[in-house]
Amino acid sequence: MRSSSHAQHPLDFLVPGQILVLMALSACATAADGPAARCDANAISGPATSITPVASGLVNPWGLAFLPDGRMLVTEREGRMRIVSINGTTAGTISTPVSGVPAVHAAGQGGLLDVVLDPAFASNGRIYFAYSEAGPGGSGTAVARAVLDPQALSLSAVTPIYRQTPKVSGNGHYGARLAFGTDGKLYVSLGERQKFDPAQDTQQSLGKILRLNTDGSVPADNPFAGNKAYLPEIWSYGHRNPQGMTRHPVTGQLWTAEHGARGGDEINTPEAGKNYGWPVISYGVNYSGTKIGEGAVKAGMEQPRCYWDPSIAPGNLVFYTGGKLPAWSGNLFVTALKDTALMRLSVDGNRITGQQRIEVGKRVRDVRVGPDGWLYLLTDEAAGQILRVSVP
Ligand SMILES: [Ca+2]
């Protein structure tokens, strides 16, 4: 029609009414739009909280597990595991390091990461922990099983049960939360090591959620068992850096929090065999502002339950089961590193219906429900603390 040598505006051939329609369509199709909603779309209010330090002097604590006697087993990212007793005080006692912890690759985001107790810990003393391990090619997330003697402060029978493949360069996006399902299987969240595409490569374990037996072997009923195109340990794939994982106390559904790119942190409910999209779909953009992948929505790829834009940098998450405060019952609490807060999300089925931001003022790495019914946080600081969140 016209020579392309003219610097013609692409909308010049449209009449004004058509331009409006086109603008509306284009607004619907931007990467920031899609069926998922922002986690903070509806602000909710709740009872005023008290946040009290109960132990101080931990160095970058990462994972916390309550022992049956009420003490806390805590990891420090540099490679130490300690037992903390609070005895109802605000100046808890921190033990010397537990012996027997293997050498870890403590660099960048890597080191000694999550720890969980075996569901039968009271009888078998077993714990499971995730860590970054150096090896040919660089480093990767690994999971080990051991027997803890809480009195002797020692680990025995330390056995690596899983190693992420392949090991790669760099010191980011290890993921590394652990959670037991109601099926007694161990779920492991693995980041994509800042390598993007491997999250979609089903022959690698970067950017995956795994489902394992407690000795590291693959359950026969895993979604891809027997399918040569997939590593059999994969539960779900297309994840970026999931550092939060828990299960719903009633339904058993797995819930995860994952760091997205700028403006794309997500809450997901990973289901067997499904693809969660990274790096093909995302609500975020590169830190430089450039686009990632193909947009926010694609057939065959799952949407998050909600996303944060701007990003909060989520750590762990947990459903409130404390029973102390009916107003929190069934709420999902998510820690925020960059946003230095605790997010209280109201949940209806699989839908996030509201968010209350509870200011902490420190980078919050982990959240757990304590045996006293209150919430306990780890702050990711060189002068790290355990904080109790209660309602007076
Ligand atoms: Ca996703």
Automatic annotation (TrEMBL):
Residue ranges of every copy of the Glucose/Sorbosone dehydrogenase domain listed in the record: 59-388
Gene Ontology MF terms: oxidoreductase activity
InterPro entries: 6-blade_b-propeller_TolB-like, Glc/Sorbosone_DH, Quinoprot_gluc/sorb_DH_b-prop
Signal peptide residues on this chain, from the entry's feature table: 1-31
Species, as recorded: Uliginosibacterium silvisoli
Keyword field: Oxidoreductase, Signal
Keyword Aminoacyl-tRNA synthetase: no
E.C. no: 1.1.5.-
Name of this protein: PQQ-dependent sugar dehydrogenase
Pfam families assigned: GSDH
